[in-house]
């Protein structure tokens, strides 16, 4: 489990095509300082398993399904990525519960800068719209954020200077694709209420 508090802005140093998968080598001295084979690291919000580590880098294999369903398929050597290690038991939950399981992708529609923050509008796939509410939580490229406005086909977020400087959201431009993970609690509530409704109808 993750919290959506990005620890490090890393970089893709190599991409190897494995046919039905890809192997990424990523630089992240902070997240690799205690990482070992089999550990998990979230890359732009996608939970990946560490294959090897060394010299501040780690490798991870990404299956075709993940490449297709997330923005990881567009990564190339030199791409910047958000990195986060799983939260430790007993640690503070600074963001919200994040699984690292991408629900879909959105597209940056527009950016509106102001003196101390920036409003970013992101398109929202129709199947995910019901899980996104004003002042609720959403994960964008692995960053835990609060929804400012929730529309039928979009939502907006407000980015503070720290987020702009220390994550990929500071450099994403209109037209760029981002990974989205909605609040898992909303999905569980929907499933439970649906089950109750079905049982009541019997």
UniProtKB/TrEMBL annotation:
Pathway: Cofactor biosynthesis; riboflavin biosynthesis; riboflavin from 2-hydroxy-3-oxobutyl phosphate and 5-amino-6-(D-ribitylamino)uracil: step 2/2. SUPFAM superfamilies: Riboflavin synthase domain-like. GO terms for molecular function: riboflavin synthase activity. It is an enzyme of class 2 (transferase). It catalyses: 2 6,7-dimethyl-8-(1-D-ribityl)lumazine + H(+) = 5-amino-6-(D-ribitylamino)uracil + riboflavin. InterPro entries: ATP_synth_asu-like_sf, Lumazine-bd, Lumazine-bd_dom, Riboflavin_synthase-like_b-brl. It comes from the Bacteria. Residues 1-96, 97-193 form the Lumazine-binding domain. Coiled coil: none annotated. Lumazine-binding repeats lie at residues 1-96, 97-193. Its EC number is 2.5.1.9. Keywords: Repeat, Riboflavin biosynthesis, Transferase. Catalyzes the dismutation of two molecules of 6,7-dimethyl-8-ribityllumazine, resulting in the formation of riboflavin and 5-amino-6-(D-ribitylamino)uracil. This is Riboflavin synthase. It comes from Streptomyces xantholiticus.
């Amino acid at each position: 489990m993750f919290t959506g508090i990005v620890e490090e802005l890393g970089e893709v140093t190599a991409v190897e095509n494995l046919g039905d998968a890809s192997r990424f080598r990523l630089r992240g001295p902070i997240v690799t300082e205690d990482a070992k084979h089999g550990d998990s690291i979230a890359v732009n919000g996608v939970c990946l398993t560490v294959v090897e580590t060394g010299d501040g880098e780690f490798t991870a294999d990404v299956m075709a399904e993940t490449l297709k369903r997330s923005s990881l398929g567009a990564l190339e050597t030199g791409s910047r990525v958000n990195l986060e290690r799983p939260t430790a038991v007993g640690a503070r939950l600074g963001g919200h519960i994040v699984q690292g399981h991408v629900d879909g992708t959105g597209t940056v529609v527009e950016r509106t800068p102001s003196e101390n923050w920036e409003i970013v509008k992101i398109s929202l796939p129709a199947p995910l719209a019901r899980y996104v509410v004003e002042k609720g939580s959403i994960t964008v490229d692995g960053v835990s954020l609060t929804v400012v406005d929730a529309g039928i086909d979009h939502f907006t977020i407000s980015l503070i200077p720290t987020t702009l400087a220390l994550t990929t959201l500071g450099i994403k431009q209109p037209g760029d694709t981002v990974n989205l993970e909605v609040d898992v609690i909303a999905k569980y509530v929907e499933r439970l209420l649906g089950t109750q409704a079905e049982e009541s109808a019997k």
